[in-house]
Amino acid sequence: MKVKEVQSLIEKEGLDAFLFSSQANVFYLSGFKSTHAYVVLTPSSKHLLTDGRYYERAKKELKDWDVVLIKGKALRFIKRFLKDLGVSRVGYERDRVSCDFRGSLRAKGIRWVGYTNFLRDIRAVKTKEEIERMREGAKKVDRIFKDILGFVRPGMTELEVRRFIVNRIFEEGSTGESFPAIVAGGESSAIPHHETSLRKIKSGEPLLIDMGLVWRGYCTDFTRTLFIGKPEEEFKKVYTVVRDAHLFALEKVKVGNRIGDVDRAAREHISRKRLGKFFSHSTGHGIGVEIHEYPRVYFKGEDANRVIEEGMVFTVEPGVYLPGRFGVRIENMVAVIDGRGEPLSSVGLDLVTL
């Protein structure tokens, strides 16, 4: 991906090298997925270190990398490898390692410098290739959603619907869910992160579906709230409020605006409709190789002042949740393309009834 940009950052920070140990960042930098691999970058070289379970595949996939076989205990080997590279000032992911890992880094001749969110700003702005991967993933989710509409019927359980979703995810060629799908019927839809259960889906109630898949290493995230049967006027009014809040937020996704502007647009509209106290989460979050990335789309905190840039991708997902009754959430991934927010899903926002 942006290896040269990261190498420039390493040099700018006055480091001789940087050790990346988190699976997400190892994949982001190398495109190689495993449960045990490390990336060492210097301003002029790139190395992937892994054990015998992945070594041959890594050599085959990473033709332009120095792929190194870890022998013996990993951290001891890594420290020896760094000494052989002749580096002394080495950065590491302080926010991504355990206390034991940090304690084991001590080595004579190496000065470790811990960083939090070292790749935060680089990962927040996606390349055209990254956006295309996410667009392809969104198209697959769109197809799954359309199939759900023909599958769902009263009497089946939430878990039956989730099983259908998971099966379709694999049929689409995905490596799996980007998070456990949420299928929430009736009053369960008022719980933003409901745990899909054996509860039966009934006629005369909403059904909230929040799902995503991983496509070529990148996550997708999508939510729609349906209604089984004929909706009452109150539900339709709340749905309209959430849909309009989504559209007001989308209008604010423009290069030069701030992230907080997006959340504020949705939140102020919901508040004007006297439902503000029932909107209990941020309007969205960054997304990429991980389901939740920087920035958080919220009007408070440091992220709120982040200026929107070309290539950023985040979700827009306002919601209203009436405890014990029902909830509505509508979510799309939005990429900043040609200065404006472009939804990666082609599924409409209007209420669907079954």
Explain what you see.
This protein has 354 residues and is of the alpha+beta class. 34% of the residues lie in helices and 23% in strands. The chain is built from 10 helices and 18 strands. Strand 12 (284-286) and strand 13 form a beta hairpin. Helix 7 (128-151) packs across helix 8 (158-171) and helix 9 runs antiparallel to helix 10 (259-272). The longest helix has 24 residues, at 128-151.
Task: Name the features.
354 residues; alpha+beta; Creatine Amidinohydrolase, Chain A, domain 1; Creatine Amidinohydrolase; 6-stranded mixed β-sheet; 3-stranded antiparallel β-sheet; 10 helices; 18 strands; 34% helix
Quick structural gist:
The chain is of the alpha+beta class. 34% of the residues lie in helices and 23% in strands.
Determine Rg (CA atoms, Å).
Answer: 23 Å
Q: Helix- and strand-based class?
A: alpha+beta
Query: How large is the share of residues in beta strands?
Result: 15-25%
Global mean pLDDT: 96
The CATH topology label of the largest domain is Creatine Amidinohydrolase
Element order: H for helix, E for strand? HEHEEHEHEHEHHHEEEEEHHEEEEEEE
> What's the helical proportion of residues?
25-40%
The strand count comes to 18
CATH structural architecture of the largest domain: Alpha-Beta Complex
What is the topology, as strand order, of the major beta sheet? 4-3-2-1-5-6
Oligomer type: single chain
CATH class of the largest domain: Alpha Beta
The named CATH superfamily of the largest domain:
Creatinase/methionine aminopeptidase superfamily
Report the span from N to C terminus: 43 Å
Q: State the shape.
A: elongated
For the largest beta-sheet, the strand count, sense and barrel status come to:
6 strands, mixed
Poorly predicted runs are none
